[in-house]
Amino acid sequence: MLMDPLLYLGGLVVLFLLWIKVKGLDYVIVHQRWIFVCLFLLPLSVIFDVYYYLRAWLIFKMCSAPKQHDQRVRNIQRQVREWRKEGGKTHMCTGRPGWLTVSLRVGKYKKTNKNIMINMMDILEVDTQRQVVRVEPLVNMGQITALLNSLGWTLPVLPELDDLTVGGLVMGTGIESSSHIYGLFQHICVAFELVLADGSLVRCTENSDLFHAVPWSCGTLGFLVAAEIKIVPARLWVRLQYEPIRGLENICRRFSEASEDKNNTFVEGLQYSLDEAVIMTGTMTDTAEPDKINRIGLHYKPWFFKHVERYLSENKKAVEYIPLRHYYHRHTRSIFWELQDIIPFGNHPVFRWLFGWMVPPKISLLKLTQGETIRQLYEQHHVVQDMLVPMKHIQTAIARFHQDIHVYPLWLCPFVLPPGRGMVHPKGEEAELYVDIGAYGEPRVKHFQAKASCRQLEQFVREVHGFQMLYADVYMERSEFWEMFDGTLYHRLRKELGCQDAFPEVYDKICKAARH
């Protein structure tokens, strides 16, 4: 009797393989990608997660990370000095494969630059007296929440997706719904340790020019080998209030009010159309009303953006109590709302109950297996952009997003931007409230052209003294790029530290106009 279902399953596998042979693997990956994702990438993603979680837990418990860290730093210094002895004929970059990064951009420079191997993915120390955690650059947000929350601590700004690394968030940037109080990820860092172009190791703090130049530099001033980040006491729950709003003017006014209210630990908006949004405000607490608890991180729960949309359709305010770690990673299972384009039935209750525990597939594996055809389709018919604009221009900005790309939902996340001397700071000498408008999905505007439409948005963002996150496709010319970003300190330090022959300029590393 046991053989019957096994024979049936074996027959299905044989038929599936024959179908792939007839249609071709490229056809299946492009037109029926969910099959490939569900059968191969989801199980592989689970194996990846289990391996890295157990590895991080064992290393931290055995306290072997600090000793290994010093040895790994010396190995990086040795590689840099060898590059110098060989004449430094090409620029250097990290040896981490481009497909392992969360960014959708394909880093072609990896093939021509000298690859420096940096295998540093350990949490080195949690210092509750100084209230800092010291970590290596490849430590990700999933690792940090798993450890810190178990110790009763958390990061003041903990960017959303599990796989985002400290190195990427320091060298690029990061944001979360607490950023209206604490600023961007760079603003909760207290020290960076870097290996410079001459192979020397330096530790820089807030008093150093290098400390302010590193964020947004994308690894073009040195190799990050450790960072010290502030930590704050954690609570068990987030009391989250959902407030549906209609009318663009009302949405912008209510969102601005909530963002200015420092009694709100968390502020976030999901905009479902030009005139419909849900504004969420939250605070941390150790107590919860039992009948209002919602453990949204459980595998069988609806995707968060779909759950939020229900309050819009019901047109009512509501309050829920969400476990802190579940809240931090509320958009992880659906990769915000990107997974609905990859697994169209992914939010169906049956799929969630049976396979939701394997979701999401690793973004790195999606990149590795996408192929040139899918990459080009995504580039021409898909938008992944985060634009940071002053809060006073939020209404105009949302209208421009609607006009130029027409992608919904939009993610609205406020943040305070303090004055500074790095690449990103407000125009004046005082802190200013900004909003991150995130657009992820297929544009529904007629005759969408990726380059032309994104350049229109980039121009608008420059005009209002905003900024574009550099993980996405950037279409600006060099002069436009340095009009958006302040390169004064960055260029001076590149010259002083000998970076010009050692690392590409940030524009040449990330902008499409330079890479093609």
From TrEMBL:
Pfam families for this protein: FAD_binding_4
Any one GO cellular component localisation term in the record: Golgi membrane
A GO molecular function assigned to this protein is: Delta24-sterol reductase activity
Topology versus the membrane: Single-pass membrane protein
Which UniProt keywords are present, listed alphabetically?
A: Cholesterol metabolism, Endoplasmic reticulum, FAD, Flavoprotein, Golgi apparatus, Lipid biosynthesis, Lipid metabolism, Membrane, NADP, Oxidoreductase, Signal, Steroid metabolism, Sterol metabolism, Transmembrane, Transmembrane helix
State which Enzyme Commission number(s) the record gives. 1.3.1.72
Q: Which SUPFAM superfamilies match?
A: FAD-binding/transporter-associated domain-like
Enzyme class of the recorded protein, top EC level: oxidoreductase
Pathway recorded for this protein: Steroid biosynthesis; cholesterol biosynthesis
Q: Where in the cell is it found?
A: Endoplasmic reticulum membrane; Golgi apparatus membrane
Example GO biological process term? cholesterol metabolic process
Annotated TM spans: 6-22, 34-54
Reactions catalysed, as given in the entry: lanosterol + NADPH + H(+) = 24,25-dihydrolanosterol + NADP(+); 5alpha-cholest-8-en-3beta-ol + NADP(+) = zymosterol + NADPH + H(+)
Instruction: Say what the protein does.
Output: Catalyzes the reduction of the delta-24 double bond of sterol intermediates during cholesterol biosynthesis. In addition to its cholesterol-synthesizing activity, can protect cells from oxidative stress by reducing caspase 3 activity during apoptosis induced by oxidative stress. Also protects against amyloid-beta peptide-induced apoptosis.
PANTHER family for the chain: 24-DEHYDROCHOLESTEROL REDUCTASE, DELTA(24)-STEROL REDUCTASE
According to UniProt, the name of this protein is Delta(24)-sterol reductase
- Please name the gene that encodes this protein: DHCR24
